[in-house]
Amino acid sequence: MDTIKIEQNQFQILESFIEHVCESRHIYNYIGAISVTMENVMSLAKCSAEITVSSYKDGICFCINTEINSFDFNAFAAALSSENEQIFIISSLSDKAKVSNDGKTLSLYFRIEGIEEELFVDRKQKINTYSLQKVKVLN
């Protein structure tokens, strides 16, 4: 189990921690997806956090604990709206997101034992749909 206490804007330290976690578990091809997800988590948290990483049967879990209730994922249903860009990215790149402890804890699960083709296609479609909507908003 790996743990780090990090301030909201310490993205370089976060990147180094994620690289260490992925390299020590030989899951190099997950560094990008986990990094993008965790950067969005820390931006959403708006405070310092303790991040604990552990393994589970099919993959890896990042547990983010904050002192304030930073996480309200009732907004997942509206994840395609521009106000919820961070939530959309987090929910699209992780396999499961679980909020607990009155919004102070977020657990993110990433399957590393291989991803089903259907899930891969679904994620790709979500990202493409979201990108197209963002382009329409910007135009």
CATH topology (level 3) name: Heat Shock Protein 90
Annotated CATH architecture: 2-Layer Sandwich
Helix content: 40-55%
**Biggest sheet, in brief?**
5 strands, antiparallel
Order of helices and strands: EHHEEHEEH
Strand line-up of the largest beta sheet: 1-2-3-5-4
Count the beta strands: 5
CATH class: Alpha Beta
Identify the overall geometry.
globular
Q: CA-to-CA gap between the ends? A: 46 Å
Summarize the structure.
This protein has helices at residues 11-24, 31-45, 85-93, 117-138; strands at residues 2-6, 49-56, 59-66, 96-100, 105-111.
Provide an overview of this structure.
By secondary structure, this protein is an alpha+beta fold. The protein has a single domain, classed as Heat Shock Protein 90 (2-Layer Sandwich), CATH 3.30.565. Helix content is 43%, strand content 24%. It contains four helices and five strands, in the order βααββαββα. The chain has helices spanning 11-24, 31-45, 85-93, 117-138, and strands spanning 2-6, 49-56, 59-66, 96-100, 105-111. A hairpin with a 2-residue loop joins strand 2 and strand 3 (59-66).
